[in-house]
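User: Please predict structures.

Assistant: First:
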Amino acid sequence: MKRAIVLLSGGIDSTTTLAIAIAEGYEAYALSFDYGQRHEIETQAARRVADSLGAREHRVAKIDLRVFGGSALTDDVAVPKQRSEKEIAHGIPVTYVPARNTIFLAYALAWAEVILANDIFLGVNAIDYSGYPDCRPEFIEAFEILANLGTKSGVEGKRFQIHTPLIKFSKAQIIRRAVELDVDLSLTHSCYDPTQEGLACGECDSCLLRLKGFREVGIKDPIRYAEK
């Protein structure tokens, strides 16, 4: 069976990507990160998802991006709330974590080389992506070139491929694909600023994009939100 590394945050996008990799016949090795983000709920969700979908193995790499800060997710910076769709679509928000996908993909590449996997799956999308530069097709293409230039496997002719099956999907399309694959979306977590009880705030960009997707699909989001 083909092996693949799947980056797994526990959100809808990465969860659906893991389901796609498994449906395509890959033996999936899920990789998550405890990188100093505002909460541990994200890694807890990733563990639930990996177990539910049947990942071959799931590892959580512990790194600390708080040493640099520069993001509302890793620093003492307020998470934006109740932004309009126009505001969300314009510019790079303070929830962008500097070079995060570059760092995560580098870790995935290292593990892929160790377990002799040619394939890495990443759940980015370039439509509902909140302006993050490391979710664009140009970035993915550049990293794939790097992967094949800067590794022993690549130099010896074992080509790496970065798969982004959701790159042209809207959030609604991703949710529909998840439903088609019988993914339990109640296990996922998307919120940037959950309550102490683990409830989604319903007001950050990630929550608003998630809720918009469910509205467009016409089904109820199965996770719990804080009451306002």
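Second:
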Amino acid sequence: MFGFKDVIGQEALKEKLRREVDEGHIPHAQLFCGPSGVGKLALALAYARYLCCTNRTDGEACGHCQSCKQWEQLMHPDVHFMFPIVSSEKKKKSICADYLTEWRELLINSPYFSYSQWLEAIDAENSQALIYAKESDEITKTLNLKPIQGDFKITIIWLPEKMNEPCANKMLKLLEEPPERTIFLLCSEEPERMLPTILSRAQRINLPRLTEIEIAEALQNKYGIEPRDSETLAHLANGSFVKALDQIHLNEDNDKYLELFISLMRLAYARRIREMKAWSEEVATLGREKQKELLTYCQRMIRESFMANFHQKQMSYMNLEEQNFTSRFAPFVNEGNAMGIMHELSEAQVHIEQNVNPRMVFFDLSLKMIVLLIRK
């Protein structure tokens, strides 16, 4: 577990990282960048485990030394984690160490998971998760100590763009003047949201989207999915193993989002204002993360509906239910309104992130759909 062999695809990057360790050319800070589901965290974990192993063999951690045994339970004394949390006085949780049980359980199950899945694992409800300044204070104390077992102290930071400003400024000082024998591995989905000065202190590694073949093979080998089904799931995943797993494990949310999307488009086209208001109130009862997911889903369905007009099946990333609706809805999404609809959905997402009243956001969105859907 947590070896290079467990990382899906990314063969060139695996070889580069192995070579760094074997030749002793190890940067003090590396930034793994890429969209959700391409393996940033999995690759950082494999690299860290390889670095800790005392008996590396054929480009892999040996799996038998004391370090490797500790890695199996994510309890290596020289490896530390930072990740977004919900600070809660009621639950007496204020730092990452308070969430280590949930973190280890999720990682041991699979290092391929999303931010929203992490929020669900920690029962965040409607709260946003951040990395707070207190965390940088804690990690500073830890890193000023000598390594307990190995040659390095390693800190893996998942979603560093979630650091609040005080935390980011303190981490910048650590990266500028790192304690002796420390290594930072940052795994980011939105590096543009990080401080430019932090970006300049880390060696950047860009992970490309996974190929359909890589995803299909992983689904067959790891989950026993039949070849034909795995190929379909891999195509729908659009380069993300997280999305492929979502297709297996969760169709409940997807079905709900499709239902809400269809309802919005039908009500807006029919100009049924009273029902649109009820629709917006229903969506407002969802948590903030679910509302953002719904808007992302709606953007995908508009994109797919527009592409369906060109009759290129190989460019379709929809399941059967989505295809059935799109076959009738696609003619209403055209060159005259597609960009406008996408813009309004994106604006609504920004407003939800800014904590604008969701009833207002979604009712306003539905009214704008009335105008946009009649454009030719």
